Amino acid sequence: MEYVVLIPAYKPDMRLVSLVDELLAAELPVLVVDDGSQPEQKPVFDALAERGIEVLRHAVNQGKGRAMKTGFNYLLLNHPELKGVVTADCDGQHTTRDILSVVNALREHPNDMIIGARKFTGKVPMKSLLGNKITCGIFWFATGIRITDTQTGLRGFPMNTLERMMRLPGERYELEMNMLLALKDLNIHHNEVPIETIYIDNNSGSHFNPLRDGLRIFKQIITYMCSSLASWAVDYGVYILLLLLPLGLAEATCHVIARICSSLLNFKINQKAVFHVKSGKREFIMYIAMVVIALGIGTPLLALLTNIGWNALIAKICVDLLLFFFNYLVQREVIFRRRH
């Protein structure tokens, strides 16, 4: 036995039994985790038991993330000889053919996480299409990793990644996104396999809520925005104060002084609250270099805008918005990037 299909199941119907039958026919072992289903689902699990399927049980519903961790833990303890695990949903959204494609991709890339990426062709519910496009775009900005389907539950994990995945935060659906967010920090590469897009009842059973899950998913970038907003408030306050004081300073000079004041605050907040990296002199020097470069971009741009007639306050807002994206990318990719 080299690969196992792990299926977290909460209130499944007989479609789970049909999927298991197909997987067994394809000679793929299956492990099911019953995440606190109701007595009404007993016939489903009885049918699995008749087929010799191992079913791990939660006494109460604990969430898909916890069910996955329960399955990972069982396989690590009882089947350390495995080469990999494929997770699939219990509701019929993943076909046996696509699950086999992920298994084969794991064979070809034994150290990579495999993502079964839906092609989103045909009649796709607007909620799912827009939700995926938006999350993929923000995910790329937050991490620098391009993934075409961040919400898929069909994934392949090399055995040597399971312990690291189990340590990630998240007990419910957010664990799946946390796994993707952690790829770079864990130094795990990924590969995508195109799979069929299947929706049950127009995806009415989808648990993805763009607002709720977006807040969970993009905690890092939201924290960065709050950090930037706090630093910007200091920056803008000092800038306005210097303009109002009878010092005769030019707008560009006020901009430089204000940026120095806010940068010291921003560095400490980003280090501890956003990127969670223990940094020292090296990171601080790189941060100062980034600030100097940003000033080299922002100061002449601000001077240009004010010289052509822009209001000084509006010009600064526009310049700072541009530098917001520049600074985040530099900090993510260079200054606070974890090194292995």
TrEMBL record:
Membrane-protein topology: Multi-pass membrane protein
Gene3D superfamilies: Spore Coat Polysaccharide Biosynthesis Protein SpsA, Chain A
Listed GO biological process terms: polysaccharide biosynthetic process; protein N-linked glycosylation
Entries under Pfam families matching the protein: Glycos_transf_2, GtrA_DPMS_TM
Domain Glycosyltransferase 2-like: 5-126
Transmembrane regions listed in the UniProt entry: 236-258, 284-304, 310-330
Subcellular location: Membrane
InterPro entries cross-referenced by the UniProt entry: Glyco_trans_2-like, GtrA_DPMS_TM, Nucleotide-diphossugar_trans
Main subcellular localisation: membrane
Keyword Transmembrane helix: yes
Domain GtrA/DPMS transmembrane: 224-336
Protein name as it appears in the record: Bifunctional glycosyltransferase family 2/GtrA family protein
Organism name: Candidatus Fimadaptatus faecigallinarum
